[in-house]
Amino acid sequence: MIAVKDLSVKYKSNRGEVQALNKVNINMAAGDLYTVIGPSGCGKSTLLYVLSGILTDFEGSVLINGKPVNPRTQRIGLILQNYGLLPWKTVYQNVTLGLKIKYGHTGLNEDGRHLLQQLGIDDLLNRYPKELSGGQQQRVAIARAFMLKPDLLLMDEPFSALDAITREEIQELFLETWQKNPVNTVFVTHSVDEALYLGRKVAVFSPSPGRILEVADNPCFHKDKLQFKDEYHEMSMHLRSLLSKG
Ligand SMILES: Nc1ncnc2c1ncn2[C@@H]1O[C@H](COP(=O)(O)OP(=O)(O)O)[C@@H](O)[C@H]1O
Ligand SMILES: [Mg+2]
Questions:
Q1: Region 8-33: what's the mean pLDDT?
Q2: Which of 163, 113, 112, 114 is nearest to 138 (CA)?
Q3: What is the reported pTM?
Q4: Is the Cβ–Cβ distance between 136 and 123 less than 8 Å?
């Protein structure tokens, strides 16, 4: 479970201070999947930096399973837009990297092999990242994150560089993988459609300095042919009006 209480972040530079987040509160039950949507610059990435333990200069409290966030004692998975794969390592080495750091070996068990099959990368294990398409690279990044069974999985606009068809495929693959391995996930996006398809709950942020305008239960989560459903149109209008009012 994730508990964020009155989280505020200011960036300080010699040109002055920028308030990036303003009293953000989130309470996430175990095994939940949130999408976070908000305008560019509202502090979405900043929130993920705090949750990942990279950014430690903040006000308020951030607890993961009751303990202050700490990447040394908690497993935190991070999936970014640019995949974050090591170019000099093969797919297999990339996927098992975290295992080596955590457990000191890189052997895959049954679950691990199944994950690679499910994501369709079991035939690509000896390739290098530059020999893969963007979609394939992102599937490798997803495999690497789930392989570690993280306490918290953070995703920062991970699919926004992919073409529309690849993006839809990988959204589906991600959801299937998540449903078999339901880890706490915070998924940042600036697409209303993506927020509605992938989020069990959708947190809507105001423009900078970001605060949460609403956390909506989402009836559209993982629904087929969403564009033809009434609840999609209702939710979509609701989110867009929140975003435009700020
Ligand atoms: N290192 C930094 N120093 C100063 N300001 C920053 C820094 N990083 C981000 N910001 C500012 O903080 C705000 C939030 O940024 P960010 O979290 O990247 O937003 P988002 O991911 O929602 O686009 C923006 O106004 C941005 O310009
Ligand atoms: Mg960002």
A1: 94
A2: 163
A3: 0.95
A4: no
46 lines ligand 1 (CB under 6 A): yes
What are the residues whose beta carbons fall under 8 Å from the beta carbon of 123, sequence distance 6 or more? Answer: none
> 144: helix, coil or strand?
helix
- The distance of Cα 210 from the centroid of its chain, to the nearest Å, equals 18
Whose CA is closest to atom 1 on ligand 1? 11
Distance from residue 121's CA to the centre of ligand 1 (Å): 34
Tell me which of 76-85, 121-130, 196-205 is least confident.
Answer: 76-85
Does the CB atom of residue 106 touch ligand 1 within 6 A?
no
Ligand 1 mean position to 13 CA, how many Å?
12
Rounded to the nearest angstrom, the distance between the alpha carbon of 62 and the centre of ligand 1 is 19
Q: If you measure from the C-alpha of residue 156 to the centroid of ligand 2, how many angstroms do you get, rounded to a whole number?
A: 7
Q: Is the dihedral of CA 152, 157, 162, 168 positive or negative?
A: positive
For residue 208, which ligand has an atom nearest its CA? Answer: 1
pLDDT in tens, 143-195: 999 998 999 999 999 999 999 999 999 999 999 999 999 999 999 999 999 99
Domains belonging to the chain, first-starting first, are 1-70+181-246 (3.40.50.300)
